[in-house]
Amino acid sequence: MAAVTAHQTTQKTLGTANAAGGAGSTAAAGETDAAAADHLAAFDAAVAADERIEPRDWMPDAYRATLIRQMAQHAHSEIIGMQPEANWITRAPSLRRKAILMAKVQDEAGHGLYLYSAAETLGTSREELLDKLHAGRQRYSSIFNYPTLTWADVGAIGWLVDGAAITNQVPLCRCSYGPYARAMVRICKEESFHQRQGYELLLALSRGTEAQHAMAQDAVNRWWWPSLMMFGPPDDASSHSEQSMAWKIKRHSNDELRRRFVDICVPQAEALGLELPDPDIRWNEELGGHDFGAIDWSEFQEVLKGNGPCNEQRITQRRRAHEEGAWVRDAAAAYAAKHAPAQTSPRTPASASASAPTSASAQHVEETA
Amino acid sequence: MSSSTDWPLWEVFVRSRRGLSHTHAGSLHAPDAEMALRNARDLYTRRSEGVSIWVIPSTAITASSPDEKDSFFEPAGDKPYRHPTFYEIPDGVKHL
Fold first, then answer.
1. How many alpha carbons lie under 13 Å from residue B73 in its C-beta half-sphere?
2. Which residues in chain B are closer than 8 Å to A118, comparing Cβ atoms?
3. Closest CA to A123 of A5, A15, A243, A12
4. Which of A10, A89, A198, B72 satisfies CB 3.0 to 4.6 Å to A159 for a cystine?
5. Which chain A positions have a beta carbon within 8 Å of B33's beta carbon?
6. Whole-model pTM above 0.90?
7. Which of B29, B52, B63 sits opposite A4 (nearest CB)?
8. Residue B11 pairs with which residues in a beta bridge?
9. What is the complex's ipTM, to 2 decimals?
10. Which domains does chain B show, CATH number per domain?
11. What is the mean pLDDT of each run of 10 residues along chain A (369 residues)?
């Protein structure tokens, strides 16, 4: 993810290591209009040619700010998303299911870390991002403000919530910003397990006792509509979509991805032996896809405003985890400071197992990464 | 207080299997090199993606500037004779 490159840009090229969105504007301020126009032309040409923008490249301030907003929200969603499922780790019905669920929740933490690293290449810091999450100044996906009432919810989240996430994320692997696209490639590879374990879990319940089947159906009933809302507002009401499409951060519109998701889910629900809670779903021969019922966007807006069932619980738990982990971070930092002379050199005996990487080889990797 | 400051950033390079070189996998924060290695194992090799990991303080890397892209790499631009395809060899000549 090469966070180093953004760091060095601010240090060397621009003479300032300031926060999010700063690099572009400071560059522009010190330049002639002609140079700024050259930069913009080079940026536009790279986007048009489907090349990737890399951290040290010039980019418009608004592009940088949009990416930070989107990647921060994405990273926050991954770590907040650990909570609803983690509730069930101690109550998983078997050791197999418990091990799977722990691995999945650990993956979500990992996904958050990939995305925070990628966001940091834009000149923001981990600390700043977490502060904004804790202060409620940056968002996470509304879907995680719904409760996980039964074990079947773990299955519904895997199938529907992760399924919707995958539908959203696969096109992001071709996002114009290199570090984001690379993080998404890694995440998408791992998400597939998440979705399949959820589907398998629901299938086991659906084919189980009558009560188990009813539990699975109830979970699908509750998660279906919020999952459809994960794609964001309808195209005619989406404030960021058009510019993001032009920048190739987004490749498909919200409604397009939502329709694709419905088309994928309908046969999967049939195979599960469960019903999707929408009487208006039917095949539309003309469109070559499914029609489906109207989404209650007032519910979406309410959850977004903070009035969902679990908004307060999620952010409180996140803040508490951060505060209660402070002593661990302090202890590790104190230990590092105490042993600093032996450990700050990159060429300690610890790295003798391989020839120590020179800055030249690091550069080489950077260029080809 | 230390918890109010980010741990340093490290770049992570992973050798996916013996015989291949280490490739940049991403970056992470850690208080020291040993923790950076452990965090890298947990973050980048959860599915056996690696047999060896390097971690390097991000500040230790010197990178070329994208602004110099043309001039910096320009010396190689006008030397096509460094490529084997530059040379014309008669048809039928083998193993060349």
1. 8
2. 26
3. A5
4. A198
5. 343-344, 346, 348, 350
6. no
7. B63
8. B27, B56
9. 0.86
10. 4-86 (3.10.20.520)
11. 41 33 45 83 94 93 96 97 96 97 97 96 94 95 96 98 96 96 95 95 98 98 98 86 89 94 98 98 95 95 93 96 94 90 49 39 37
